[in-house]
Structure formats: structure tokens, C-alpha cells
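ENTRY TYPE: protein
CONTENTS: sequence, C-alpha cells:
***
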Amino acid sequence: VGGGLATLRVDMKRSERVAVLFTALQTVAGGDSARHMVAMRIVNGFIKPVLAATAISRDPDSTSEFSVQLDADGERTGASAACDVVLAAVEYASRSLKDRVWTDAALTEVSGLVLQRCYLQRIPETRAELGEFHAVVDTLTEFETALLARCAEPPPEPPIHRAAKQLDELFVERQCARALAQARVAAGSTDFAVAELTAHQQWSLAFVRDTVEAGDAQLAPAWAQAAEGLEDAVFPQCVVSRSAVDTVAAAYRLANEAAGCSEAGLAQQLMQAAWCVLDVYGALFLSQHRQQLRRVPALGWQFHNDCLYAAHHAAILDRVAPGAESRWAQVAAGFLGLGARHMDEHVAAEARELQSLVNLDAFYDAASEAEQGQLAQMRRRVELALAQLGTAMRPPRVTPHVYFRALGAYLDAVFGATIDGIVGVRDIGVDDSQVLSEHCRSVHALTSLFRLDAEVLGAYSSLAPAPRARGADACPALLDSDSEAEEPAAGRGGGAGRLAKRHCRLGDKLLQLADILEISRADILARRRAGLLAQFTADELAALVRALFADTRERALDIDELRRI
């Protein structure tokens, strides 16, 4: 073998002697061993290299020898032509050596080599290709029948015939393995390509048909009836990753194959692979990219959206592809939980960063020029950090209710650190209290970040909460009807004050602290009695009264009263 040519040559002058030698060896029980050695020499030295080439064709100029032209770059030779070349080589060796040189084991080895090249390496990937491949399988079984006719005792179930019976199983295994491999690759991708949804995604049979046909398959007829009543299945506009969209599409294709499969065992195998595709993607993506998701807030929110996207479609598949052993509900709940945990961790980490920006030293001697500058600088730094975080998650990058929830948590972190810092000051002069009160109101004014354009909110106002998977009631909904199904106030972008009250737990407390810093002890007591200072503990109010007012008997009595209320 070499130079693009494989040649099998038998010295015709000595072939008679070989036949005599085999006969002689047979008398001492060595003929079969010698024949097998010669046959395997031909298999390993000639047939294997020939079948390893991409394009093979018999040399028409060859007469006294058997030559095959090999090409590693040409068009791949089909099964029929490859089988013809192998049969011709086997016939040439038998005819030239004038003996039944081929042992049963050697012929079975040849059959296995053809099986590997023309069958196992060519298992189709789509149903359409599978139908065409049956003709190839017929050619291969005919080849094997002709080849093994030379056997003294043909095997009861030759390799190609056995594989032909398992074509459907091998096809399903190949589909499942390919989908899982693609999920692993998608989860490990570091390009974080975006598949931005420019509009709300309405689920429909047309959506499934396009998804399935993109994989060169046909929509299973069973889907049409199962899809009735899913007009409410809408995924809101946001940014998701291309890898998540592709992985969900792979799950749909596997579920579609399962719906069109008549063999229950194979259908279950396909459905299990569909579940695993999503599970593998979610687990691997987070484990491999946790640091990037933490460092780049936009990527963190994109992964959160990916989880909701996978959960949304798993919940739909739970309705259109139900079954006694269906795991779609668990898959949906798992992704909702994963997205919620990731969001909580992400928000908590950013909240800690924001808290670190609150300079507690600036609250002491706040009326001094230096400390007022520190307070102003602190507010600017906090405002800049919040603006950067807001840009990373501003709708339609995420849905409005996700934006509002996260922004509320960020502001609460700043508000809480500000409140704790001021409550911790042991002596607050009159001028200091005025400066700190103004600072509290200035910080609270950051709630203006809740104001979004009416046009942005309007796109979400008509949406209702998405369908939930069975058993997933404990998981958060994809949409929040109070913030996304309400019509935004005209020209005001949804009412920042109303949203701040709803999503900022400490917003009112910060404003109340601003008032406490300016009002009298009597007013503080009156508000406490009226229940207006319920967010403050008795210890917090006592600390503020001690810091703001001189140490007198009346102050002590007021503190005791505050503790009793």
C-alpha cells in the first residue's frame, strides 16, 4: 500500500506449491492455521487499508494483480462499490492461490470491517435519511451473504445481519448521544452568544414545527392534538443565550422523535435523553462559568433568563408530552429553582459590594466640611454603582419584575447600611442631624431608578403569568402580574414611587429616619404611639434619642416610654 494505490499480488509460478503445502499441512492438522495466517495477512495488509481510504476504486489496468486506487480527499465511495471491491479481492486471492484460503474467522473479520465502514460510521441522523439507509442495509446484507457462502460453517448470526436488526436502536442511540454531546459543548462554550428575543415568544405548533424541521425531521402527528389549549404559553421578551435556545431545541427534537416512535422502549429512551439534555446543560454551564457569571453582571442575568427559558419550555412539554414516568415537571421546577438560587446569590453578592461603599466614618461630625464632602462622594459612588448594575439588567435585557426585585434588593442594601451607620453614631449635634437628614433623603431619591419608559413597560402590560409545570407551584412564576400585567401610568413609566414602596423594604424606614433626625422627642413618641415607626426596634429608637438629645430626666422617661410602646 502506498502512493495512492493498494496492490494484492500472488506469484503465479509458486501458487501450485502453496496449494500442495496446504494439503500437506492438513495431514498434520496445520492446514487451517496456515490458511488463517495467510488470510489475515491479506486482511490486515490489504483490505483494512483499502476500507480506511475515503474513495476507493479498482484499477482497470490491473491484470496479473489486484490493484485498488485510494484517495483520502475524494468523494466517499458508497457501500455498494466498497462491497464489490472487497468481494473481488477475496475472489482474486482464492483463485490465485488455487485453494480455499479463507477461513471462517477471517471472513467474519472482513464482514466486521465492512460493517464498521459502511454501516456503523454511516448511521443516519434524521428519519428521512433513515428511510434511505434501509437500501444500504439491504446491499450490505446481500454482500455478507455472498461473502460468508465461502464459510465451512457460517456463523448463526453474522455481524451485518445482526446489526441490521438493531438499526432502529442504533439510530436512537446515535441521536441521544449526539444531543448530549451537543449539550456538553454548548454548556462549555465561552463565547456567550446572545439570542435576543425581540418580541414575546408565543408557543405554537408552528414554533415546534420550525424547531423540528431545522433538524431535518418532520413534526410527529401526535403533537397537533396534544398542543390544544396552549395559547397562553408565552415567554416574555428578554435576552437569552444562543446555547440555551439550541439546547431547548435539541430537547424538542428528541421529544418529537419519541412522539413519533412506535416502540415504547425506544420512545422512553428518547424522552429520557431529552430530560438529560437540559439537566446536563444547566449543571455544566453553571459549574464551568460561575466565575464569569459573577464578574460580569450581564452574563449573570443572561443565565438567569436561560433558566427561566428552559423551565418555561419544560413546563410546556409536561403538558404536550405527559406520561406516567414523565420528568418534565421536575425539570421545570429544577430550572426555576436554579434560576432563583442563582439570582439570589448574584443579588446578595452585589448587595454586599454596595454596602461596602457606605463609609460609616462620614456619619460622625457630619456637618464638618470634610465629612459633607465624604457624604457627597459616597452618594455619587453608590449612584454610579447602581447605574452600572441597572444597565446590566435594564429591560428588555430582563423582564421588568426581575429588574424591580433586584433593584429593590440593591437599594435596601444601601438603605440598610445607611440606617445602621447613622443609628450607630453616639452623638449627633443639631447641625449634624440636619446634614444627615438631607443625606437620607438624597439617598432615598435613588428610587428614581425604578422609573422606566412607558414604552418599555407597555410591551409587557398585556402578559399574564406563564403556565406552571405540575408540582412546581412552590417555584416563582416567570411573570409577576402586579408589575407586568398592569398598564403603566401615562407618561410616568409605571410610577417609581409605587414600585419603590413595593420592592424597597427599607425605603419608608429611611425616610422616617430623615424625619426623626429633625423632629422633637415628643413628635418621635407621638409617631411611635401611632404605629408610624414600626420598622424601628425599641433599641434603635433609644439609641437615636440618646444621640440627638441631651441627657436629662425627661429624655430617660421618654426612652422608657418608647420601650413600653
Remarks:
- The chain has 23 helices and seven strands.
- The first helix runs from residue 12 to 27.
- Residues 466-494 have pLDDT under 50 and may be disordered.
- The two ends are 100 Å apart (CA to CA).
